[in-house]
Amino acid sequence: MESVKKILAPIVGYCLAVFLHSLNNSMSVFFPKLGLNRLLGLIIAISVMGFFVLCLFVIMIIGLVKEAKLIRRQLGKDLETGLFTQSEVDMLGSIPRRMTTSFTSLQKGGFSGWYARKRFNNIATELAFYRNRVERGIVPAEESVIMQELAYKQALSELRKKL
User: Fold this and answer.
1) Contact yes or no for 41/27 (Cβ under 8 A)
2) From the CB of residue 14, how many other CB atoms can be counted at a distance below 10 Å?
3) d(Cα 52, Cα 79) in Å, to the nearest integer?
4) What would the pLDDT profile of 5-55 be if each residue is shown by its tens digit?
5) Most buried among 26, 46, 56, 79, by the most CB within 10 A?
6) Would the CA dihedral through 103, 114, 96, 161 be positive or negative?
């Protein structure tokens, strides 16, 4: 199923882009021939562009929701080991919470505090996505996987001291 999505998603996206582009070009050619005035043509063109922007927005939201679930699922495995607390996992799985935490770090710790928080968030997210790639078989599960996870965990432990 995953491989079918990888093949069909770009094709469907390309076809949608070609369709919307041809629709936009067709409006500029055929509206004057149909006797539609420019104001109506402009209203329809803006409507089509609005639909396009809405589609992009929906795709972006779906992607962010899936990403948040993946991060919470992958990093939730470390609750028992103490690498992350529940509030950290929740924060890392939420864009608004990440932004709030980063802003708070900037207020309390200055630029160095903000930078440490940014690095912590980035490395934790990288760890979640790395685990997901291993889980899906994209990265072969070898001894190097364990070493990479340890490197992520070590970096997170060092950054935690700066927070």
Assistant:
1) yes
2) 10
3) 41
4) 888 989 998 998 898 788 777 777 776 777 666 677 677 778 878 888 998
5) 79
6) negative
Instruction: Round the CA-based radius of gyration of the chain to a whole number and report it.
Output: 23
- What stretch of H or E contains 59? helix 38-75
Contacts of 94 (CB under 8 A, 6+ apart): 68
From 37, 9, 10, 41, select the one nearest 28 (Cα to Cα): 41
CA angle 146/154/106 to nearest 5° reads 135
pTM of the model: 0.73
Q: What share of the chain is helix, strand, coil (3-state, %, to 5)?
A: 85, 0, 15
Domain assignments of the chain as residue spans, ordered by start? 69-162
